[in-house]
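Memo to structure team: turn this sequence into structure tokens by end of day. - J.P.
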Amino acid sequence: MAVLGTGIMGAAMARSLLRAGLDVAAWNRTPSRAEPLAADGARTAASAAEAADVVVTMVHDASAVLDAVRAAAPGLRPGAVWLQTTTVGPGDLPRLTASAREHGLVYVDAPVLGTRGPAENGELTVLAAGPRDVRDRLAPVLEAVGARTSWVGEEPGAATRLKLVCNSWVLTVTHGVAEALALAKGLDVDPQDFLDAVAGGPLDMGYLRAKAALLRSGELTPGFAVRTAEKDARLIVAAGEAAGVRLDVAAAGAERLRRAAGQGHGDEDMAASYHASFDGPDGSSPGA
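Reply from structure team:
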């Protein structure tokens, strides 16, 4: 099988596939980014043209997906299954499915829930929509990268729509944590007092604890980077507009992420939305 895209998520997924004993060819548009996977047992491809029965795409957006598959197409067997795990929008699906038909591939819509840690540990949740007759062929791949696969239909699009709904919640919670801690900073409230006040109650949650810990440590190693989160936020807003649904919070969140990226935080974890609350050139907070 081939994994096209070896960024934060693609590389982590490739390692999970290798640990499961699968033969993996890894390709990235910048070849040097795929080379570290050779130490884990992957075949690194100088081009994307690697014969495979299953090809997984995990890149930044729909345009990058199409570029990768076009490059890989000469090496793919007719009838190969294309497991498309990149988060895209409903408006991108016609281009992707047309590319699948053009290259004789079976398209499976399969975005994932989870960040770097779950991807490294094979604990993603896979949201999948695709033909029933390829699901057995995909089972070893899905079992390697995910703790659970939720099949939500046979036609492409069902999984993508569900992924955008899930990510709308993820981003809403992330911005909520960021703004609460920013307000605490501005009002000279100890963030631990805030966390203690909600501890164990209906307002407490693991995600609050995880993102608050990242912000308090100052080490914003990306599990889900600001630039990617902004891309997803804009996909969510566009999908809502197309469906006649106004998403004011999602639109404001996309703008927060744009500001954070403009302050130099684009490659940090999306919790860096925190910095968009402050006016310094780098999003520095009062007294920081």
